[in-house]
């Protein structure tokens, strides 16, 4: 197979130059060796590929048709080599990134995704919005490559590691008709009698756990009347039932729905985004993905 491929490369070179001496010089072989390779190829194909033309040669009619197919074959061979090398170096393939819904409002997350896509255009990216427990299960099963969850950090599956990714101030989301909607800032204690919309977080991890911790520090247990899976659902409940929801500050600038966002004054009123990945062994592409997110974050 290797000999045949080499003969095809010799044939393509000779077909382009139409002169044995010049083609042999370009290929870095003796003219007699090139002539032998072409004769062997013609014997294999069963037709004359070249015919005399003055002091040189030219493709026969059969040779012209054959050349088109050979050129296509050689191009596809080079493409396959490039693809294999990019795969080995982590520059091509497909990655799956899971995330909590609010990750898509995080400027850092979006900036790195866009930058990664521009640098590695041959890498396909699948984004899955999942609850935290689903993300960790799929990561443990190696069905996703990287997960983005809300802190505080839960107990992680074996073979995974987490890194701090970003931090956002917490806001309360209120209906414009709420009595506190005109305030510039609020403490949770001012909302102790309100019904809250929480999230279906794993064992009260994520923003719901932060809400409970902050409320208890303020001297009360929050009345979490509803639990939803997405921030968009929480905002819908805020509008429909004049409820209160705690949200990360990254969503505020998007002005989703007819909602008033007010920053919380409470100490430690912030939420962390964590990046969770596999702790080896990793494919080249998985390593490229993890390293890129970590490296980009460290220089911004």
Automatic annotation (TrEMBL):
GO molecular function: DNA binding; DNA-binding transcription factor activity
Signal peptide extent: none
UniProt keyword Transcription regulation present: yes
Sequence ranges assigned to domain HTH lysR-type in this UniProt record: 3-60
CDD domains assigned: PBP2_LTTR_aromatics_like
UniProtKB keywords: DNA-binding, Transcription, Transcription regulation
Gene3D superfamilies, A to Z: Periplasmic binding protein-like II, Winged helix-like DNA-binding domain superfamily/Winged helix DNA-binding domain
Keyword Transcription set for record: yes
Cellular component GO terms held in the UniProt record: protein-DNA complex
InterPro entries associated with the record: LysR_HTH_N, LysR_subst-bd, WH-like_DNA-bd_sf, WH_DNA-bd_sf
Family: Belongs to the LysR transcriptional regulatory family.
Descriptive protein name: HTH lysR-type domain-containing protein
Native species: Tatumella citrea (Pantoea citrea)
